Backbone:
């Protein structure tokens, strides 16, 4: 019975992994890229300059700009620049025409030094990967449902995979390179066990993030169907004070940063909202940056009176269950991670992606062995092969195309940001076609080689189309920009190596197959 | 469960389909009922109890899915989900009744 249980789990692991593997690969890869969302956005909008300035200076600049351009607005929102995303962005909301409606938002990017408007090229930037990672380019809420379902399947595949491996630690120290199928399995096991805590954390936390959407039964029962009431208790928002109608000048905002810092014991404010600026009842809410602690505390904010600058209130400490949910959220997003930890997140994410990819390769490889002698493959194996190639090599190609489109599409093109995204999907679609018409190994080699060219060419492309090439960015110490170029270069190198390996392994395989065929023919002749 | 990839009988395919349905739909019902009963019985503030119930419900889902593929027959998979569902529903009903009286 015990052996039977393990076999049943192996079956579950195999089929859950296969059916959702392609989708999970895309989700994990784009999610991993999203850890460098801000850096990617910075690279994709190189016009927005990186300047080392204090938050106070930027905030004074923003306030000055908003007082001149958005004096009558009902709300200002200010995003202060930080080391990763150097843009200072201001948004304001007009008073709604009718009460209860949402007023229209206007957004501008400012130079944090001069206060001049900066016109970045139209792009979705790193936000695209982040959004695709959980919305899958589908209308709300279907993408979120599908990605959460995929997360549940991932969770099942992880646990059943752990059960399947009885010698889980022994297997970890076993790696037999250059043994074909065996090496893939060893790699799958090693990368699975090595970052197992990360796999489990990232998968379970993704379920927790959307739990109110996918598992709302307890909310509906406890709050008698009033989901809003639940959210009001989870996020005790500071109530916006009524408009008094008396005009009064807004106090300088910059000193409030220091006051908020005292309240938090050193935490940094990165997001400010000013309600009813210019009114006697104006209030300023400072939200804490997520980057200084693991537990993500929704709506951890302090509120000040906008005219006198006195402290109006702080949000209370979160309870233990809320802190646990918040730390799942915080751990998943990794906002708190500094450069080293962020890279570790990125590498762990790649390891998860690689685990899914190797699993897909193993599934096919095992079954292909049976058909090694015949030239034709059954339809279902060929289908898996095409999907494997397009979902892995093709996706990498699409990512590289997205970056190239950002630099090559004309700046004035209407719907430019959409065309960047379109080119991503067009190339991904073409990779399916290409994989369908070419023989398996050739398709792998060609797509990987092209991806190697595109990624490796990114620094060159950047140097040719913008003034921010590696010589400049490295000298200036703009590590987000330089790091992006260097990472693309390294990725290109890796794909070139992978393509070369594939090509060589293909030749070796071809030789053995010919020999095998020769032997069979000989035997038949005898 | 280790079927040969070729010439699988229809009954086997139907049994697998039945197990998948039990795992996805039945498992969801078990998880939802578990989250509701937990949120009613955990001695915490309402909002905290609800958050706790939702967070742990996925473990119940996982257990249900594993059961559906580990048990011997597809029928057992359904029965094995029906029993905890009934118990959990009774627990929820009890809490509801206690709240009203």
Residues:
């Amino acid at each position: 019975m015990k052996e039977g249980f393990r076999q049943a789990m192996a079956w579950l692991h195999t089929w859950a992994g296969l059916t959702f593997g392609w989708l999970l690969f895309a989700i994990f890869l784009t999610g991993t890229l999203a850890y460098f969302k801000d850096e990617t956005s910075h690279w994709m909008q190189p016009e927005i300059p990186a300047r080392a300035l204090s938050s106070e200076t930027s905030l004074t600049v923003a306030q000055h700009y908003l007082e001149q351009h958005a004096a009558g607005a009902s709300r200002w929102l200010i995003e202060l620049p930080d080391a990763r995303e150097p843009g200072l962005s201001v948004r304001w909301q007009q008073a709604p025409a009718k009460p209860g409606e949402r007023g229209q938002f206007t957004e501008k990017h400012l130079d944090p030094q001069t206060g001049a408007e900066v016109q970045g090229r139209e792009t979705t930037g790193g936000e695209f990967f982040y959004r695709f990672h959980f919305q899958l380019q589908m209308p709300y809420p279907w993408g979120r449902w599908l990605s959460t379902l995929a997360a549940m399947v991932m969770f099942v595949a992880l646990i059943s995979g752990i059960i399947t491996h009885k010698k889980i630690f022994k297997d970890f120290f076993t790696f037999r390179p250059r043994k074909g199928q065996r090496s893939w399995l060893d790699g799958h096991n090693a990368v699975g066990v090595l970052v197992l805590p990360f796999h489990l954390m990232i998968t379970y936390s993704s379920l927790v993030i959307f739990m109110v959407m996918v598992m709302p039964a307890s909310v509906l029962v406890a709050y008698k169907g009033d989901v809003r009431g639940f959210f009001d208790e989870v996020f005790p928002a500071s109530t916006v004070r009524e408009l008094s109608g008396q005009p009064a000048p807004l106090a300088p905002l910059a000193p409030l940063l220091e006051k908020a810092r005292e309240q938090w014991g050193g935490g940094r404010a990165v997001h400010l909202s000013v309600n009813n600026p210019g009114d006697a009842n104006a209030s300023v809410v400072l939200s804490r940056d997520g980057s200084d602690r693991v537990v993500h505390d929704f709506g951890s904010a302090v509120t000040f009176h906008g005219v006198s600058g006195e402290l109006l209130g702080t949000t209370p400490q979160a309870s233990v269950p809320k802190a646990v949910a918040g730390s799942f959220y915080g751990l998943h997003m990794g906002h708190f991670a500094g450069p080293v930890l962020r890279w570790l997140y990125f590498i762990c994410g790649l390891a998860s992606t690689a685990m899914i990819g190797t699993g897909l390769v193993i599934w096919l490889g095992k079954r292909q062995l049976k058909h090694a002698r015949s030239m034709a493959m059954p339809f279902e194996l060929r289908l898996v092969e095409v999907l494997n190639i397009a979902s892995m090599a093709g996706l990498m190609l699409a990512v590289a195309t997205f970056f190239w489109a950002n630099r090559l599409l004309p700046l004035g093109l209407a719907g430019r940001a959409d065309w960047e995204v379109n080119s991503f999907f067009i190339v991904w679609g073409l990779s399916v076609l290409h994989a369908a018409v070419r023989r398996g190994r050739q398709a792998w080699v060609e797509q990987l080689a092209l991806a190697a060219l595109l990624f490796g060419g990114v620094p060159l492309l950047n140097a040719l189309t913008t003034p921010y090439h590696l010589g400049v960015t490295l000298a200036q110490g703009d590590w987000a920009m330089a790091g992006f170029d260097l990472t693309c270069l390294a990725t290109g190198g890796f794909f070139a190596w992978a393509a070369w390996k594939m090509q060589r392994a293909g030749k070796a395989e071809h030789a053995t197959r010919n020999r095998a065929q020769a032997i069979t023919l000989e035997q038949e002749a005898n | 469960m280790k079927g040969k990839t070729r010439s699988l009988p229809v009954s086997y395919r139907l049994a697998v389909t039945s197990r998948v349905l039990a795992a996805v739909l039945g498992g969801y019902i078990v998880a939802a009922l578990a989250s509701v009963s937990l949120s009613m019985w955990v001695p915490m503030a309402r909002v905290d109890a609800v958050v706790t119930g939702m967070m742990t419900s996925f473990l119940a889902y996982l257990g249900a899915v594993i059961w559906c593929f580990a048990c011997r027959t597809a029928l057992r998979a359904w029965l094995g989900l029906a029993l905890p569902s009934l118990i959990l529903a009774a627990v929820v009903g009890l809490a509801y009744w206690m709240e009203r009286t």
In short: The interface with chain A takes residues 1-2, 5, 31-33, 35-36, 38-40, 44-55, 57-58, 61-62, 65-66, 69-70, 92 of chain B (CB under 8 Å). The radius of gyration of chain B is 17 Å. Residues 8 and 14 of chain B are 10 Å apart (CA to CA).
